[in-house]
Design brief:
Pfam family, one: MarR_2
CATH class of the largest domain: Mainly Alpha
Domain HTH marR-type: 24-159
Protein name: Winged helix-turn-helix transcriptional regulator
Strand order of the largest sheet: 1-3-2
Helix content: 55-70%
Largest sheet: 3 strands, antiparallel
Radius of gyration: 20 Å
GO molecular function: DNA-binding transcription factor activity
Number of strands: 3
Shape: elongated
Structural class: mainly alpha
CATH architecture of the largest domain: Orthogonal Bundle
CATH superfamily of the largest domain: Winged helix-like DNA-binding domain superfamily/Winged helix DNA-binding domain
Low-confidence stretches: none
InterPro entries: HTH_MarR-typ (IPR000835), MarR/SlyA-like (IPR039422), WH-like_DNA-bd_sf (IPR036388), WH_DNA-bd_sf (IPR036390)
Number of helices: 7
Number of domains: 2
Distance between the termini: 33 Å
């Protein structure tokens, strides 16, 4: 295996602090570096479509919700894992672009339903294909079995993190 920057760091820590085990950095450090690199690579098509950070997450959550492609701000917040304040800002941008609409919730006049417009649905359907192709490309160094193993290991780590 080629030595990367994270491996070099752990080697340095082993030399300087032989009493410590820096091996967790081999996973965590690489995950952070991959996340940053992949985020930069995956963001392009969204920026080209005029979407800000996180806007596609809202569109995708609405699109995959089924039916009328509509959710409340609270449902969106839980699905996208950001605050309702962040959802409000994103929905403001998307509404200005004609990609979503807001309406009064039928079951609560204080609540609002956010729904995809036809334009928003077309854009989301186009971008999800591009996004998945980009993700597949980023994972191109792994075969199918390796991708499945990695997905299972990451699910295990995510479950442990959620349990804390």
């Amino acid at each position: 295996m080629t030595t990367d920057a994270v491996a070099a760091m752990t080697d340095q820590w082993r030399r300087e602090r032989p009493d410590l085990d820096p091996s967790p950095m081999l996973v965590v450090g690489r995950m952070f570096r991959l996340t940053d690199a992949w985020d930069r690579e995956l963001r392009g098509p969204f920026a080209e479509a005029g979407l800000g950070n996180g806007d596609f997450d809202v569109l995708a959550a609405l699109r995959r919700s089924g039916g009328p492609c509509a959710l409340s701000a609270g449902e969106l917040s839980r699905t996208v894992l950001v605050t309702t304040g962040a959802i409000t800002k994103r929905v403001d941008r998307l509404e200005s672009a004609g990609l979503v609409t807001r309406s009064v919730a039928a079951d609560d006049s204080r609540g609002r339903r956010i729904a995809l417009t036809a334009k928003g649905k077309r854009l989301t359907d186009r971008l999800i294909g591009v996004h998945l192709a980009n993700q597949r490309r980023l994972l191109g160094g792994l075969d199918e079995g390796e991708r499945e193993s990695l997905a299972a290991l990451l699910a295990k780590l995510a479950g442990a993190a959620e349990a804390r």
